[in-house]
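Lab manual, section 2.4: Encoding a predicted structure.

Procedure: take the sequence of the chain (152 residues), apply the prediction step described in section 2.3, and record the output as structure tokens. A sample record is shown.
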Amino acid sequence: MTLIFTLVVAGLSANLPGALYGHLTAEGIPAAVATGIAGIPPISALFAAFLGFNPMASLIPASVLAGLPSAARSTVLGTSFFPQLLAGPFLDGLHIAFSVCVVLSLGAAAASWLRGPRYIHDYEVDQAAPAGSGERTLGLGGSGATRNIEQR
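Recorded output:
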């Protein structure tokens, strides 16, 4: 599970800065501000989206927000802008993680196939014998136990 989450975050961190920069500059945010915002940690962005929080209001300076047209401001601060922005980079991370999982599964299947047919070893099982008996029984566990049975 840790490997999958790490791969998702690696894919997210590779593609998130470009997506943030592109979406913010498309909405009219100056390039210098968009570059600074594009450097946010991917884990923080991911958990903000999971919690339904749009951090753009706290990341974009108030003076920049005031200079935006009202349609662009409402888009950037809206509830769907940030999750839609993360969707592409997150999907790329999922593709990476699932591709690695497929390769590992195929490798495990090949290793299992190369093992050959199933071989079952004959083991002896130690069974609890009544006190004072001397009969020997076979089963799992190695040497076998003795159990005395009176002869009739």
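Check your result against the sample. Residues 119-147 form one domain.
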